[in-house]
């Protein structure tokens, strides 16, 4: 219809067609790319209301002047407006006169209404009983904004919201009453008393109600709510009342969860002083505002009355954080805990802070902001490092306190070995209290905490809770095991491996007391080893700046900063980097025009007087000289953008040819892009833009992600994102748009149209790259003297991916915290000596205790259990020696630190050092006990195999005797049990076997010509009347193999052991493969045993 109307009205002659169909999705071009400015249409409202609606809008027009003072009548293209009006009139007339049947499928009515009631709570009142008339409310749902005002009863209504059946965004309410004279907020929503669900309303129904509580307030506005290292917006807030060091009674904050604003407004009761902690993650704190001083490092807080605006937020955060950190760092060093990385970063950060104060007093505001941000960024890192160091020291001592428990047990067994349980508990508690008291007085961890006793009590509470949980768990396991045994009618006396090791540990520790001199000397050796490890080695945490070669060549000398995966940078990132290089034209940003759906390219249409052509991507680059010098090489005609130039475009050669335009030729150099008239200033040749790679090795053109990257967020993810959580889909696969279908415009123009900043490059002039100093240095900041130096400094300053182009190639720079374990060569010889001593001791103990090992075997201990005894003794040596060596090292460090005796030694307080020392000692002991425990196991069974084997079949039959005996009177009980056992396996399809035709009988082999009655040979068999025999047909699992056999179990008198009987088992194969039959019978006979 549109095409026929356009032809009949003579409107198809020049320019682009009038009508573009956006009702059906096109694979060639998404309809979203027609609407650059993403306008809101009336058709959307009617569709949400359940009414068919239609919107006609001008496409390929950014409407850049709409809503600005430049939107004047003389800028209207009345000729085009006339053609458009005639076409629209004809189209609507044709549509209205054509019969249309919409069918039964109509849009659903998803509009919802929110009605709220605002009440004001007075100072000192418990309940908000007074209405809050005149309160202005802003309700936003997604990107939509709704405004309302409370009436005399405090009631307000918001119509036009969408139901949660249509969108997952909640209706977020902000409400304020403003002073009519000053415009200041006089009351705001009380966040705590109102409740989250009341001001973040889920529109679950078409009509929702909420109640809001207002309180009298003053406002304080902060700036730069952005991480100075990663440029991520702050979403986590911890607000404290400076007078009580606790959350304020009433408060509200605004603009923190928009994820695109760097401003933050706090609303508190008049006279309140506040302290603020901001971050983008719960794992670290990035901005701390305390109003601190040297006399009061914790600060008094900022008064909301005195600070309605905190203008120099970056410097205030840096100053407060350094004032807070200075005594903490000094406290660590006073107690012998030194961290070279912290001291180095503190020196740099305080230097930047002093420079920021000097620049502010000298009104050098650009340099001031740069220095303040650098100081704040370093303070953020140092704060988290100091906190990590303090926690690490405390965790180290808590680890050894946990080790004190088995140490106290072992020491009680070695020193006292009380038989009475009450004395044993008292001795154990006394030893444990004594060692904790020693550590409490010599270890600095307890002087770094405000409540050291609480730490110890909390540890024991956790320990006792763990013990109770284990008791309940093991009791449950035991009861469930008993239930299973009763259900299976099977009883077992086999001990588990854990129980066996526990019993062996108890016996092994008790055995140490029997050889006091040997135990003392061995422990003394290991104590000296632990002391050596703790005192002559050191774990150092350092900041390491490294570079990995990425490519053998570099497109230019300089540095590239970007996010991995082409995640967008906030616009503030560019100003931060540019402030570091004032007056320099070497900072070049890159931005792209993107759609919300990243799986579709951000297309545009370039129109000239003679035609039109579509481009797959639009990118914005800088107009500065540094960008011109780098990008001019791709141009085949024309020039690069001049500094400050705006309405200009550089086109691919093929697109320019289709449009019939030529750069800088009057009459042929004008095109229209996004509805704006632009001048074609340059043309680049085929494949030249694709061949122009950045330092990361990728083209500069926009990217398109695969379809799976654009999955809709779930309701839980949407809720998390609205609460400020960083929820993003990790997608590493993407494809760049063809450079021959990409247009280039000035960076400022595309950013004004909603472009996304993707990367920032800093190029180095040839004179600087050759070794001359650059003019772009900022005091002691990252000067562009060389790419290596610049990349190293920027890696320390920013938490982004940093690529550096150097003469030797392209490198990826990183700045990470590394750990080094110094002094290891000093302990190699003591380690070897200790291994030999412990090995000799344990081997001597094994051969000395051969008779004892024989006794263990006689009472039923398996060879593995005998080996456990010696391993348990070795572990007891390790535990006792590690703890006593640790205590000796800590006491020596506390008493001798700073004296000439302690020269060359270190005091290790880190958790890693303590764990490493203990693991080394245990490793030495276990390495030394491997061979002795193996020898002990072999002594336990010198001439017997550790596992039994089946005899070879003869004529499809296997006959063997079970390796145990039973008394004559027991055969009836054992036989009855076996009968019940095999009968219960009839007609089942699971388990190891299934039975059928189970029969039993009592035989008298001596009456069948088998010789005289056994009682005539030995009187011990006089009570034997007959022998029990059980036969059954058995199928072995897996039943798919078809293994069938006949089982014959016969109880016979053992003439070598009078009064006892043995069990003879005969297995006769009836069906199935012979080899498989033999292998499966191993499990069957194990069950029988």
What does the main sheet amount to? 9 strands, mixed
* Overall residue-averaged pLDDT value: 84
Range of helix content:
25-40%
Radius of gyration: 42 Å
Q: Determine the strand fraction and express it as a percent band.
A: 15-25%
Sequence stretches where pLDDT stays below 50 over 5 or more residues: 769-784
Globally, the shape reads extended
Q: What gap, in angstroms, lies between the N and C termini?
A: 91 Å
DSSP, total strands = 38
Number of helices: 27
Structural class designation: alpha+beta
Number of domains: 5
Describe this structure in words.
With 1089 residues, this protein is an alpha+beta fold. The protein folds into five domains: 2-97; 111-340, no CATH class; 497-538 and 827-946, no CATH class; 551-819, no CATH class; 957-1088, TATA-Binding Protein. Helices cover 38% and strands 22% of the residues. It contains 27 helices and 38 strands. Helix 9 packs parallel to helix 23. It starts with a helix and ends with a helix. The model is unreliable at 769-784 (pLDDT under 50).
């Amino acid at each position: 219809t549109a095409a026929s109307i356009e032809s009949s009205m003579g409107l198809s002659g020049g320019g682009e067609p009038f009508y573009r169909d956006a009702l059906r999705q096109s694979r060639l071009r998404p309809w979203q790319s027609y609407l650059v400015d993403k306008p809101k249409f009336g058709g959307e409202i009617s569709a949400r209301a359940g009414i068919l609606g239609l919107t006609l809008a001008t496409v390929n027009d950014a409407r850049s002047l709409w809503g600005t003072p430049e939107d004047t009548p003389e800028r209207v293209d009345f000729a085009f407006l006339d053609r458009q009006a005639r076409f629209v009139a004809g189209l609507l007339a044709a549509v209205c006169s054509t019969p249309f049947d919409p069918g039964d499928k109509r849009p659903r009515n998803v509009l919802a209404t929110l009605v709220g009631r605002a009440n004001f709570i007075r100072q000192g009142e418990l309940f908000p009983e007074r209405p809050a008339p005149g309160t202005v409310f802003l309700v936003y749902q997604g990107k939509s904004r709704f405004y309302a005002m409370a009436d005399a009863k405090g009631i307000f209504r918001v119509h036009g919201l969408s139901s949660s059946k249509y969108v997952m965004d909640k209706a977020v309410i902000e409400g304020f009453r403003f002073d009519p004279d000053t415009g200041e907020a006089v009351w705001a929503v009380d966040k705590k008393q109102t409740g989250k669900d009341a001001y973040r309303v889920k529109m679950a129904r078409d009509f929702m109600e909420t109640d809001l509580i207002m309180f009298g307030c003053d406002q304080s506005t902060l700036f730069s709510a952005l991480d100075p290292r990663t440029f991520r917006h702050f979403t986590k807030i911890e607000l404290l009342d400076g007078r009580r060091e606790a959350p304020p009674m009433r408060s509200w904050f605004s603009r923190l969860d928009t994820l695109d604003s760097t401003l933050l407004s706090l609303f508190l009761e008049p006279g309140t002083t506040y302290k603020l902690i901001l971050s983008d993650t719960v794992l670290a704190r990035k901005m701390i505002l305390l109003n601190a001083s040297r006399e009061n490092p914790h600060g008094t807080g900022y008064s909301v009355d005195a600070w309605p605006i905190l203008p120099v937020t970056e410097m205030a955060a840096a100053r407060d954080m350094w004032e807070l950190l200075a005594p903490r760092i000094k406290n660590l060093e006073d107690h012998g805990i030194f961290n070279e990385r912290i001291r180095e970063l503190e020196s740099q950060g305080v230097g930047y802070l002093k420079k920021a104060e000097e620049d502010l007093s000298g009104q050098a505001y650009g340099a001031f902001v740069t220095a303040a941000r650098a100081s704040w960024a370093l303070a953020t890192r140092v704060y988290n490092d100091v906190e990590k160091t303090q926690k690490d020291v405390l965790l180290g001592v808590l680890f050894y306190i946990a080790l004190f428990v088995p140490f106290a047990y072992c020491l009680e067994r070695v020193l006292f070995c009380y038989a009475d349980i009450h004395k044993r508990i008292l001795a154990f508690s006394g030893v444990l209290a004594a060692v904790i008291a020693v550590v409490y007085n010599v270890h600095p961890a307890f002087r770094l905490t405000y409540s050291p006793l609480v730490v110890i009590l909390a540890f024991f509470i956790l320990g006792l809770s763990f013990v109770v949980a284990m008791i309940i768990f093991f009791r449950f396991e035991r009861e469930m095991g008993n239930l299973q045994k009763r259900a299976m009618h099977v009883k077992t006396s086999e001990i588990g491996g854990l129980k066996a090791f526990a019993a062996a540990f108890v016996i092994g520790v008790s055995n140490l007391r029997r050889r006091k001199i040997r135990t003392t000397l061995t422990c003394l050796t290991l104590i000296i080893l632990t002391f050596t490890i703790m005192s002559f080695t050191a774990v150092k945490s350092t900041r390491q700046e490294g570079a990995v070669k990425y490519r053998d060549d570099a497109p230019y000398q300089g540095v590239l900063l970007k996010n991995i995966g082409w995640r967008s940078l906030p616009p503030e990132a560019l100003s931060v980097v540019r402030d570091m290089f004032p007056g320099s034209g070497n900072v070049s940003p890159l931005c792209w025009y993107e759609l919300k759906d990243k799986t579709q390219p951000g297309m545009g249409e370039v129109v000239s007087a003679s035609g039109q052509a579509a481009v797959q991507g639009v990118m914005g680059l800088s107009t500065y000289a540094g960008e011109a010098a780098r990008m001019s090489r791709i141009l085949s005609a024309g020039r690069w953008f001049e500094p400050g130039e705006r309405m200009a475009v550089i086109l691919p050669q093929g697109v320019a040819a289709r449009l019939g335009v030529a750069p800088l030729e009057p009459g042929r150099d004008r095109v229209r892009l996004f509805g704006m008239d632009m001048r074609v200033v340059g043309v680049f040749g085929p494949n030249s833009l694709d061949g122009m790679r950045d330092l990361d090795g990728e083209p500069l053109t926009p990217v398109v992600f695969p379809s799976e990257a654009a999955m809709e967020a779930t309701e839980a993810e949407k809720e998390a994102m609205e609460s400020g959580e960083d929820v993003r889909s990790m997608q590493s696969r993407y494809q760049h748009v063809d450079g021959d279908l990409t247009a280039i415009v000035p960076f400022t123009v595309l950013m004004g149209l909603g472009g996304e900043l993707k990367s920032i490059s800093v190029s180095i002039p040839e004179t600087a790259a050759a070794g001359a100093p650059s003019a772009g240095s900022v005091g002691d900041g990252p000067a562009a003297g060389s790419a290596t130096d610049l990349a190293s400094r920027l890696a320390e300053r920013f938490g982004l991916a940093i690529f550096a182009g150097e003469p030797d190639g392209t490198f990826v720079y990183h700045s990470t915290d590394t750990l080094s374990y110094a002094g290891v060569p000093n302990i190699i010889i003591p380690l070897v000596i200790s291994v030999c001593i412990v090995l000799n001791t344990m081997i001597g103990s094994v051969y000395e205790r051969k008779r004892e090992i024989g006794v263990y075997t006689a009472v039923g201990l398996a060879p593995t259990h005998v080996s456990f005894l010696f391993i348990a003794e070795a572990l007891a040596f390790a535990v006792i020696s590690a703890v006593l060596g640790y205590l000796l090292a800590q006491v020596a460090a506390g008493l001798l630190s700073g004296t000439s005796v302690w020269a060359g030694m270190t005091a290790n307080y880190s958790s890693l050092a303590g764990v490493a020392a203990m693991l080394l000692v245990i490793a030495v002991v276990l390495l030394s006990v491997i061979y002795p425990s193996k020898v002990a196991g072999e002594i336990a069974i010198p001439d017997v195999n550790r596992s039994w084997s089946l005899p070879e079949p003869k004529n499809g039959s296997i006959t063997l005797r079970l390796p145990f005996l039973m008394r004559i009177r027991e055969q009836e009980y054992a036989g009855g049990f076996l009968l019940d056992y095999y009968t219960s396996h009839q007609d089942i399809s699971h388990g190891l076997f299934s039975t059928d035709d189970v029969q039993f009988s009592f035989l008298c082999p001596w009456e069948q010509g088998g010789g005289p009655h056994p009682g005539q040979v030995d009187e011990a068999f006089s009570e034997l009347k007959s022998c029990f025999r059980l036969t059954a047909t058995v199928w072995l699992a897996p039943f798919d193999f078809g293994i069938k056999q006949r089982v014959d179990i016969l109880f016979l008198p053992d003439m070598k052991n009078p009064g006892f009987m043995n069990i003879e088992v005969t297995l006769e194969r009836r069906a199935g493969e012979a080899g498989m039959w033999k292998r499966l019978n191993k499990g069957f006979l194990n069950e029988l045993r």
